[in-house]
Amino acid sequence: MGNVVQRQTRGALRFQLFRKMAGLELLSDQGYRLDGRKATELRKFQARMGVFAQADGSAYLEQGNTKALAVVYGPHEVRGARSRIRHDRAVINCQYSMATFSTAERKRRPHGDRKSTEMSLHLKQTFEAAVMTQLYPRSQIDIYVKILQSDGGNYSVCVNAATLAVIDAGIPMRDYVCACTVGFVDETPLADLCYAEEGGGVSSLALALLPRGGQIALLQMDARLHQDHLEALIEAAMTACKGVSKVLDQVVRQHLQEASVPSAE
Amino acid sequence: MEEMAWCLARDLSTRPLSPGILFSFSCSTAHFPTAGEETTFYCVVHSIVDGLYLSREPSSNVSANLIFIHHCRLILLLLHLHLHLHLHLHLLFLVLSFQQNIQFLIVQPISSSMSETSSSNCFSWAAAAAPARENKSSRPHIQPLSSFICRGRVERGGRTPLSNCERDFLLKAIEEKKRLDGRQTYDYRKMKITFGTDYGCCFVDLGKTRVMAQVSGELVAPKENRPNEGIMFFNIELSPMASPAFEQGRQSELSVKLNRQLERCLRNSKCIDTESLCVVSGEKVWQIRVDVHMLNHDGNLMDAASIAAITALCHFKRPDVGIQGDEVTVYSPEERDPIPLSIYHMPISVSFSFFQQGTYLLVDPCEREERVMDGLLMIAMNKHREICSIQSSGGIMLLKEQVMRCSKIASVKVSEITELISKALENDKRARKAGGRCGFAESMPQERITALKTDETSVEMTDASERANDIVENAEVPPQTVSSPVVPAPGVGQVGQGLQNNWGLEEEEDGDVVDISDSEEEEVKCSIQFQPEGGRNVKTKTEKMKARTP
Questions:
Q1: What count of Cα atoms within 13 Å lies in the side-chain half-sphere of residue B318?
Q2: What 3-state DSSP class applies to B114?
Q3: DSSP label of B272
Q4: B399–A215 C-beta distance less than 8 A
Q5: Chain B residues in contact with A222 (beta carbon < 8 A)
Q6: How many independent structural domains does chain A possess?
Q7: What range(s) does the Exoribonuclease phosphorolytic domain occupy (chain A) (predicted)?
Q8: Which helix (DSSP H) or strand (DSSP E) does residue A157 occupy?
Q9: Among A143, A153, A149, residue whose Cα is nearest residue A68
């Protein structure tokens, strides 16, 4: 079979040389990344719950420069197609969209294209595993997530924001759903990738985890990675997710404290 | 009015109902819906169900008691109490069908005067009435009632819902490590790869799943941010030809999922050198388009599609291009030989299906197994053991060990499949060089009936045949002679003795009367003791063994 060219190693070497020449050193010799973080450090985490009064639950989350807004309506009666009613559980309806101003080039079609639909399906799948839908038969829970600024790790930030919004809505879940995107560069896993790191041909793995039981709700990986490195990458992702869960927990408790202080007076 | 209806209903429930009776009762008519009428209807349905359940004989073998409640003019309370509609509902047929395992409640409005909203309301109301019964622990079998209704509504698009029996059977078989077609847990179905007459056309048969991929190329302007790279475009078509569940035109969730997975598997892994597809930087590049058509859906479309796509890409040859200054000439295949694409590696996807919350795992699920699975894990790898893509779908919770195990299995399978693809490509190349006829028509086997013979399905029979051998050895020889009739008592005749009952029933006492038929008039005396008649010898087991050995 003559047309399968073994140019893999040459191509990889060429690419690394190009990167070094262009100054895009994703991991320096001292162990610092492009934005000065270490390999296992997460980006700066800022979150606010209950940002909208109209919605049942809402949350705004910033992870580094990626900003996401999540809104939850429900559980309420199933609207639209009556055929979607499940007799024993709630139906979860997710919609993912990116604002047109969220990327460097203006996005022509914020929702309805294949990537957004795929992302919506993934979000739906993640939350169907985590939310206790058996408690609300014949009803529907809507989760809407919008990316206001995209700087890498879109899926993970969406999942974290949606978790906070679901908790704000008071819908019971099995555990926090924490997500993180990790990449593999120079034999080292990098936690919480930013846009420059994601686009550089780095193999990235997005993982949604329920930390207490160590159960993976969603696992998604693109780009080539040798099988031997897979375990290390998943381990790094799980550790990063556990870190995210601690932060989320802190945010929720702080919000509850703030909310209860006026009633205490 | 309400009390009348209530009494009528109660009366009906206490009377024993025998099968096949048609009774009709009607309540009086139109009032504004009030809370009183709601309770009436509820009680009526309640008592009907009660009565019908009580009427069933506990040990009866009747398979279906069909009772039609005819001409019910019931006022169904609308769930939305703010709708004060003056409804006069005619001819509501309530068909309650009781079967041994499956029970379902169908509500069919007959008269056209019943509006759409009211019918859907009564439908949902009746369905709501059913789960209310779940609270009574004595009637667990009514639970499937509502589930069937809802399932009947959900499964649109021509696909029949899977019955509970089939679902349970499949799950149980998987628990015992048995699959429908006799495969082992990690086995793939028989795979066959054939090519069409054009370069870039490929058919893949994975068991009964059939998929066709066609690659074509044309010169277009490149993308602005990548001026010296060619463009790859992937498209999966799910036509209704493949399965009645696919609707034409509508982009269903499955279609989006498959498309995205194929894109991620082939494009993001950079299996093709796109820079070699550039003709004039910034102006003209090759756009390679891969169209995958599903021809028959028997499970595991993703694997078949990925194999078809990468094989078609390996098989494809693009026309040669010549550049002279500003002119670009595309040579036809007759003028210059077409050039194959430069492919770095071949990513192949392997699908794992999970059952019973991740306890059981199957590779290459067929269509039935896909219907009962909890979720799917797709791992795309190449033969150099590099993982190109992983995607979990379906809402299952995985553990890290499961993912690692699946990746190990996938690497083994991928190397086997890559072998097969290389061999198929080799064969095709040889056939074309030798000038033989190749193409889709030639790849179809000529099915002439020369003998009435079916393929032996590979089903694991070892334990079944052992058991069969045991039974054959332990069985007694049946009576050879036909004996003359005997009259033990006037009016009773007896010819011979019955065969000894060896089904292993332990509760039988000697000489008891066993009721084996529906009707109560017949009584069959079934004597357990085998009495030899007319000096026949009952051979013992050891004697029989001695007789068998020559």
A1: 23
A2: coil
A3: B
A4: yes
A5: 264, 268-269, 389
A6: 1
A7: 41-172, 175-239
A8: helix A154-169
A9: A149
Where are the extended beta strands (E) located within B83-190? Answer: 92-99, 103-109
> B331 is in which domain, residue-wise?
184-442
Q: What ipTM goes with this model?
A: 0.85
Q: What is the pLDDT of residues B250-287, one digit of tens each?
A: 668 888 899 999 998 998 888 899 999 999 888 889 99
pLDDT given for residue A161 in this prediction? 96
The Cα–Cα gap between B107 and B96 comes to: 9
Q: B337: domain CATH number?
A: 3.30.230.70
Band of pLDDT at residue B108, cut at 50, 70 and 90: very low
Number of domains in chain B: 1
Least confident window among A134-138, B262-266, B269-273, B447-451: B447-451
Structure tokens at B347: 């990513």
User: What is the average per-residue pLDDT within B195-202?
Assistant: 90
Q: Is residue B297 part of a domain?
A: yes
Residues of B in contact with A80 (CB under 8 A): none
| Residue A174 phi, psi dihedral angles, 5° rounding | -70, -35
Whether the Cβ atoms of residue B355 and residue B383 lie closer than 8 Å to each other: no
- Supply A167's token pair: 């908790």
Nearest CA in chain B to A210: B397
Q: Give domain status of residue B518, yes or no.
A: no
CA-CA distance, B533 to B281, in Å (whole number)? Answer: 101
* Locus of tokens 């595993």: A129
Express each pLDDT in A149-163 by its tens digit. 999 899 999 999 999
Report yes or no: B276 at the A interface, CB cutoff 8 Å. Answer: no
User: Is-contact A210 A174, C-beta < 8 A?
Assistant: yes
CB contact under 8 A, A216 and B385: no
Cβ atoms of residues B201 and B137 within 8 Å: no
Mutate to test the interface with B, among A3, A134, A198, A220 (most CBs of B within 10 A): A3
Which of B343, B398, B404 is closest, CB to CB, to A231?
Answer: B404
The residue range of the domain holding A33 is 26-259
Give chain B positions within 8 Å (CB) of A208: none
pLDDT value for A104: 85
Q: How confident is the model at residue B2 (pLDDT cuts 50, 70, 90)?
A: low
Q: What percent of chain B has pLDDT over 90?
A: 31
**Are the CB atoms for B54 and B98 separated by under 8 Å?**
no
Peptide bond into A211 cis (omega under 30): no
Please list the residues that pair with B236 across neighbouring strands.
B292
Task: Report the alpha-carbon distance of residue A218 to residue B116 in Å, rounded.
Answer: 41
Q: Looking at the predicted structure, is the pLDDT value of residue B104 above 50? A: no
With 0.80 as the threshold, say if the pTM is over it.
no
- pLDDT 10s digits, B230-242: 999 999 989 888 8
Query: Could you give the CA distance from residue A78 to residue B420 in angstroms, rounded to a whole number?
Result: 49
In B, residues 226-245, which contact A (CB 8 Å cutoff)? none
